[in-house]
Design brief:
Structural class: alpha/beta
Strand order of the largest sheet: 3-2-1-4-5-6-7
Strand content: 5-15%
CATH topology: Rossmann fold
Number of domains: 1
CATH superfamily: NAD(P)-binding Rossmann-like Domain
Number of helices: 8
Number of strands: 7
Oligomer: single chain
CATH class: Alpha Beta
Radius of gyration: 17 Å
Order of helices and strands: EHEHEHEHEHEHHHE
């Protein structure tokens, strides 16, 4: 976590989906150390969620873990209600939860297509809908896209397609949220050094991907979390409807 001299988010309540590990976990930590009360959403790994909670509490942060499958609208609604029951408001929503399925088009099944769109698109969209109903004025919504949406990678068509949808409704919803002073933006990371990133990749593939940016390394979860912190703070009040590529010059 980044050490800061003053807490930028004191008094704020932040809900981070998919926050039991990886990028989401680091985001939750970053928001908590900056003063936010944080709700960690997780799909099913209660052990990892408990570790994330313990880490934040060790830093004297206030945190709550809530299990919910965001591909189901009824569970999205329950996630928001649990947050409101605990903290009374929601100031920041980080739609980090997502899954990746990478196969050539000939190998993609209907089940694959439905599953990835249910989590990445449906889950994000209906979380935004709940934010429209319950978020406090001058709130912040940060969605997650991918820098892969700007390149042509074999086997990434469905995954990139879901993130293209996220970028579009991030842009289109900006004027709906604007009257309440709520900003909505998307962050599009490049390759990031996480457990999930390494799954199914050889050492050679990882080395190749790490050399595609200006700095010759993989991104780290903290690189992404710092940008999310900025978008969650008052400093970003004049930025909305944008997709910010956080990728070290990958594209």
């Amino acid at each position: 976590m980044t050490q800061v001299q003053e807490q930028k988010l004191t008094g704020k309540v932040a809900l981070v989906t998919g926050a039991s590990r990886g990028i989401g976990k680091t985001i939750a930590e970053e928001l908590a150390i900056n003063g936010a009360k944080v709700v960690i959403n997780y799909a099913g790994n209660s052990e990892k969620a408990a570790e994330a909670v313990a880490g934040i509490r060790k830093q004297d942060g206030e945190v709550l873990a809530v299990q919910a499958d965001i591909s189901r609208v009824v569970e999205v609604e329950r996630l928001f209600q649990k947050t409101l029951e605990k903290y009374g408001k929601i100031d920041i929503l980080v739609n980090n939860a997502g899954i990746m399925i990478t196969k050539p088009i000939a190998a993609i099944t209907e089940a694959d297509f439905d599953k990835i769109f249910a989590v990445n698109v449906k889950g994000t969209y209906f979380s935004c809908q709940q934010a429209a109903k319950h978020m406090a004025n001058n709130g912040r919504i940060i969605n997650f896209s991918t820098s892969v949406a700007g390149v042509m990678f074999p086997a990434y068509s469905v995954y990139a397609g879901t993130k293209g949808a996220v970028e579009q409704f991030t842009r289109q919803l900006a004027k709906e949220f604007g009257p309440k002073g709520i900003t909505i933006n998307a962050v599009a990371p490049g390759p990031v050094n996480t457990e999930l990133f390494a799954v199914g990749k050889t050492k050679e593939q990882i080395e190749t991907l790490s050399k595609l940016n200006a700095f010759g390394r993989l991104g780290e979860t903290a690189d992404i979390a710092r940008v999310v912190l900025f978008l969650a703070s008052e400093e970003s009040q004049w930025i909305t409807g944008q997709t910010i590529r956080v990728n070290g010059g990958f594209i």
